[in-house]
Write a structure and sequence with these properties.
By secondary structure, the protein is α/β, with parallel strands linked by helices. The chain has nine helices and 15 strands. It is globular and about 65 Å long.
Length: about 350
């Protein structure tokens, strides 16, 4: 089969670490176009993962009428996810848009409408749905090994590591929010995938923007997407806590880009009446239970597949056959709703009810 032509819009970190190498390794795809407002960045991506005929563009509009390009990866800042994805869908392209799907739920619905109208695939970069350990956890839950799930807790906390202080990550008009929309989206989606997204009843959230507000005096241990821009903006949260009541288990969360505790906590705990699971984010998990009057603790070891390659491979296949899969925009609507609810609750200082 002739490889399908792919364009990557936005040639920064995630394009270089995930999308570019995954397309380059896949015999079913060819990186035909690299687009970035900084031409040197597009050129560098093309040299690493494309070929001699890979086109370099600085304006994504220039590829919309190119019918030879069928698939597009959208790897731009959050505020551009919806407009660029919608333009590509309207032009008849299949789209894989990085997480979060968009700045808010309303934008996600507009993206879905464009995909449905033009009968194109719109996948979101919910890469944990292709993680080997996550799928093993999901299988155990669906098989009833944990019994009735009643509580799920996740923590995504780090020690003073606000990304790109003063840049697009800490500017609400470009990012939509802070640690919740950046890290929390992965944890919420992972959980909802594992438990088949039950109906959400109420959401209560609190956010804090404390440590980074005095940017020049913010002391940090690391700063990905840095260095700091002290002339820029910091108006997003570096801390979030929340409670989500569903028709199934209760979800609670704590997240921090920065905290005054020198520790990192990246895990999800699933508590059931028969057994419980603690999953290390991006890693493996432990199953706790009982048997014959004894407490059991099973360390579940497995070979972890390249989840980014699996995500890209699934995108290529689903576009070819026209079938929606687990990363389709339809599957992540609840995640977007919950994040909106948490932000609304934090702003209002009260619980938000879903209807």
């Amino acid at each position: 089969m002739k490889p399908v032509n792919v364009a990557i819009i936005g040639c920064g970190t995630i394009a270089n670490s995930a999308h570019g190498p995954s397309y380059a390794k896949n015999p079913k795809a060819r990186l035909a176009c690299c687009v970035d407002i900084i031409p040197e960045r597009a050129q560098a991506l093309a040299q690493k993962f494309g070929d001699a005929e890979t086109v370099i563009l600085t304006d994504y509009h220039d590829l919309l009428q190119d019918d030879s390009i069928e698939l597009v990866s959208v790897c731009v800042p959050n505020y551009l996810h919806a407009p660029i994805s919608i333009d590509c869908l309207n032009a008849g392209k299949h789209v894989l848009c990085e997480k979060p799907a968009a700045m808010n739920y309303a934008e996600v619905l507009a993206m879905k409408d464009a995909a449905d109208t033009h009968q194109r695939m719109l996948n979101i970069g919910v890469v944990n749905r292709f993680n080997t350990a996550v799928n093993q956890v999901r299988d155990l839950i669906q098989a009833g090994e944990l019994g009735e799930l009643y509580q799920i807790y996740c923590s995504f906390r780090a020690y003073r590591s606000i990304p790109g202080l003063g840049g697009q990550f800490t500017t609400k008009t470009k990012a939509g929010g802070g640690v919740l929309i950046d890290w929390g989206v992965h944890f919420l989606d992972l959980i909802l995938y594992c438990i088949n997204a039950p109906v959400v009843k109420t959401v209560s959230g609190v956010t804090h923007s404390k440590l980074g507000k005095d940017m020049k005096n913010y002391v940090y241990t690391s700063m990905w997407a840095g260095p700091p821009d002290y002339s820029g903006t910091y108006d997003v949260e570096e801390f979030v806590t929340g409670l989500v009541r569903t028709a199934g288990p209760t979800l609670t969360l704590n997240g921090a880009w920065a905290q005054n505790l020198n520790e990192s906590a990246m895990f999800v705990e699933f508590l059931g009446e028969k057994a419980g699971i603690k999953l290390q984010y991006g890693g493996k998990f432990t199953l706790y239970g009982t048997k014959n009057g004894m407490l059991t603790e099973t360390t579940c070891d497995m070979t972890l597949a390249d989840m980014f390659y699996a995500e890209i491979d699934a995108f290529i296949d689903c576009a070819a056959i026209g079938r929606k899969i687990r990363a389709n925009v339809d599957e992540i609507l609840v995640t977007a709703q919950i994040m909106d609810g948490l932000y609304q609750s934090a702003a209002a200082g009260k619980e938000v009810a879903f209807t």
